[in-house]
Write a structure and sequence with these properties.
Elements: E1 3-7, E2 10-15, H1 28-37, E3 40-45, H2 56-66, E4 73-76, E5 78-79, H3 88-91, E6 97-101, H4 114-123, E7 129-133, H5 137-149, E8 152-155, H6 161-172, E9 177-181, H7 183-187, H8 190-196, H9 209-217, E10 224-225, H10 234-238, H11 252-261, H12 267-281, E11 291-301, E12 320-330, E13 333-337, E14 340-341
Parallel strand pairs: 2-3, 3-4, 5-6, 6-7, 7-8, 8-9, 9-10
Antiparallel strand pairs: 1-11, 11-12, 12-13, 13-14
The structure holds N-carbamoyl-L-aspartate (NCD) and zinc ion (ZN).
The site of N-carbamoyl-L-aspartate has 11 residues, from loops.
Length: 352
């Protein structure tokens, strides 16, 4: 018999919903349906759209497009550019974090120039989160800026032993630093990348088994699990220049529940990593009467058919898992039950 338990709704601080500008990949409706089906009751959207979220107009457009169409609560991050610094103070109460892309990835938000980075770190309001995409050696640069400007640094999707060691060292030195890890880095390696081809192409890249193991061995130094849900269509992935990114909203919880059933993760730690820490670190407002019911099941195979994400594929296809989301309750209303979505009951949210 499946064992049913209740958990707080999952919180995801790192999602790419692609609207406006790339709605062939995902939009606010499909992305928040996927989130609700995956057990998330609140997610935060990234700014790297084709027209990036780097101006008040771009942010307001996202808010207007999302309002009335979303199935879980949704907040926004803002992108750092040379020119977007002038909006920081005006927008600080509307956005959860500032995203700084210090390595190449999807979109045109790369910032490498040291002077511009200094400007960004110095002008971002103290006490608010600055999120970095900083892989490997670049992470050293990000940590140095954070130390110099006394920033609240959040490191996105750490993937390697070197990165977790750098984080541990910075934490020990007393820096205000948090980090996230994504399920593709916890459950897949460069070996899987070989068989997945373009469907395993993601930034940071899937790493070695030693790297993957170091993330599990150092879960106590990791603050949260984020999906980095980054959908691209099958056509784009099969094209000549496959973009980086994999979807993750609907697969994270089944994978994590499987780790719980194998004794590799406790329920308490799961709640800390998927709800308590992201909520506290990103000042996410409370959601009364909000919870999810999950069940530990017989082993079953993840397949892409029931997925709500518009991209309709998963890098975890074929993996055996042992848990699923049964019901999701948002402010007393059922938004997901036994594979069916109801709503939209989600709200656009702002930091508390
Ligand atoms: C993300 C995307 O496609 O927007 N891709 C990825 O490989 N993770 C961007 C990002 O988070 O780097
Ligand atoms: Zn991302």
């Amino acid at each position: 018999m499946p064992k049913k338990i209740t958990l707080p709704g999952l919180v995801d601080v790192h999602t790419h919903l692609r609207e406006p500008g790339a709605t062939q990949k995902e939009d606010f409706e499909t992305g928040t349906k996927a989130a609700a089906a995956g057990g998330y009751t609140v997610i935060l959207d990234m700014p790297n759209n084709p027209i990036p979220t780097v101006s008040p107009q771009a942010l307001d457009q996202k808010i207007a497009l999302a309002t009335g169409r979303i199935y879980c609560d949704l907040g926004f991050h803002f992108g750092a550019t040379k020119d977007s610094t002038k909006h920081f103070n005006l927008l600080k109460n509307k956005i959860f974090g500032l995203k700084v892309y210090m390595n190449h990835t999807t979109g045109d938000l790369l910032l490498e120039d040291g002077h511009i980075l200094e400007e960004v770190f110095s002008r971002w309001p103290k006490g608010k989160i600055i999120m970095v995409h900083a892989e490997g050696e670049t992470l050293i640069k990000a940590i140095n800026f954070a130390g110099k400007f006394k920033s609240r640094l959040h490191v996105c999707h750490i993937a390697t032993k070197q990165e977790i060691e750098l984080i541990k060292k910075a934490k020990k030195q007393g820096l205000d630093i948090s980090c996230e890890v994504s399920c593709h880095h916890l459950f897949l390696t460069e070996e899987d990348a070989k068989s997945l081809g373009p469907f395993g192409k993601v930034r940071p890249p899937l790493a070695t088994e030693e790297d993957r193991k170091s993330l599990w061995d150092n879960l106590d130094s990791i603050d949260m699990i984020a999906s980095d849900h980054a959908p691209h269509t099958k056509e784009e992935k099969n094209g000549p220049n496959p973009p980086n990114g994999v979807p993750g909203l609907e697969t994270s919880l089944p994978l994590l529940l499987t780790a719980v059933s194998e004794g590799r993760l406790t329920i308490e730690k799961l709640i800390e990593l998927t709800n308590e820490n992201p909520r506290r670190i990103f000042n996410i407002p409370d959601q009364p009467d909000t919870f999810i019911e999950v069940e530990f099941t017989k082993p079953y195979i993840l397949n892409p058919i029931p997925l709500f994400t518009k991209c309709h594929w998963t890098p975890f296809e074929g993996m055996e898992v042992r848990g699923r989301v049964k019901r999701v309750i948002l402010r007393g209303q059922i938004v997901f039950e036994d594979g069916k979505i109801s709503g939209p009951f989600g709200k656009v949210i702002f930091p508390s």
